[in-house]
Amino acid sequence: MKRQRDMESSKRRDCLRFLGTAIFSGAFNSTLTSAAYGQNSRKEILAVLYPDIGEPYRAIFTKILEGIDDKLQTRTYKIAVPSDADLATMVADLRRSDLKVVIALGRAGMRLASALERGVDVLAGGIISPTDSEAREASVLCLAPDPLLLMQRLKAMQPSAKRVNVAYSGRHNAWLIRFAQDAAKQLNLELRAQEVSDLRGALRYYQDFFAQATSQDALWLPQDPLAVDESSVLPLVLQESWNKNLPLFSSNLAHVRRGALFSLYPDNLELGRSLGRSALARLNSNVPIVRGAVPLRDVHAALNIRTASHLGLDLTPQFQSGFELLLPER
């Protein structure tokens, strides 16, 4: 009996010693992982920080967390961060762990991750547009859909479109426009991007655009509260695009509900899997992460069939099957 107890004790010590690297390869089941996390001297090397927030946003982050767990094949050390969190206390608790990588979701997760000392790599998600400091400190997988995917879909739907026009504010989308410029070059499209600094400038841009737009133009609405003001800019843009039969596509699903032709929006489960995959790559290779912001490629597509019909698109069943969401919903 004593020999058996010694063997079991030795096995437990070996298990805890190698837990830091093995749990992410799926070598241990979730029961063991959860028990190990209950020890006073933690061995976690990865934590997920996410907002403690109500619906409907809670469901979004729950789906992202599901994707992370699916890719890591084990439970992860998760911390819900309330809006009024005592960051000093939470940071002190995290520093007692042997963290190598943190996945930070949303602004709340980013605030806590940013307060950690150097030496912990941060992978961020669930943010539309990062600040300059966030992009310098972390690898940020943004919620803004990749302009390349948007423009590819535009070309497939409207081959006559040769120019993509967009107004943006530098504060929110200067980083995204750089990706859009590369995408336009790849697809042999002309990108006409105009930075605006206030609402008056945004309205003037759209008025000038519609005054000279031709059948070769398309208009892109990024997620930008200044350049795409919901109360004054959006109604103007929707009406004029309809009147002039111009394709209007958006990075915001809500705009398709109101009349934009199509949009790409996050596939939250796949977004979580992408974050989990990146975390695994970092843990397994010891190669530092590449800091900066990248747009989202884990997306679904939405189509406004009324607008598509107005533009003369052939709404065959095969065409419609390329979209996960058809609006208006029947």
Task: Looking at this protein, list some descriptive labels.
single chain; 330 residues; alpha/beta; Rossmann fold; 2 domains; disordered N terminus
Q: What is the fold's blueprint, element by element?
A:
Layout: H1 2-22, H2 30-37, E1 46-51, H3 57-72, E2 77-81, H4 87-95, E3 101-105, H5 106-114, E4 121-125, H6 132-137, E5 139-145, H7 147-157, E6 163-168, H8 170-186, E7 190-195, H9 199-212, E8 217-221, H10 233-243, E9 248-250, H11 253-258, E10 262-266, H12 268-285, E11 292-296, E12 299-304, H13 305-310, H14 317-320, E13 325-327
Parallel strand pairs: 1-2, 1-3, 3-4, 4-5, 5-11, 6-7, 6-8, 8-9, 9-10, 12-13
Antiparallel strand pairs: 10-12
Helix pairs in contact: 3-12, 7-8, 9-10
User: What's the main sheet like?
Assistant: 7 strands, mixed
CATH architecture of the largest domain: 3-Layer(aba) Sandwich
Number of beta strands: 13
Give, in spatial order, the strands making up the sheet with the most strands: 7-6-8-9-10-12-13
Number of helical regions? 14
Counted up, domains total: 2
Radius of gyration: 24 Å
Q: Helix/strand-derived class?
A: alpha/beta
Average pLDDT rating: 87
Strand content: 15-25%
CATH third-level topology of the largest domain:
Rossmann fold
Shape: elongated
The share of residues in helices is 40-55%
Order of helices and strands: HHEHEHEHEHEHEHEHEHEHEHEEHHE
| Low-pLDDT ranges | 1-42
Name of the top-level CATH class of the largest domain: Alpha Beta
Instruction: Give the CATH superfamily of the largest domain.
Output: Response regulator
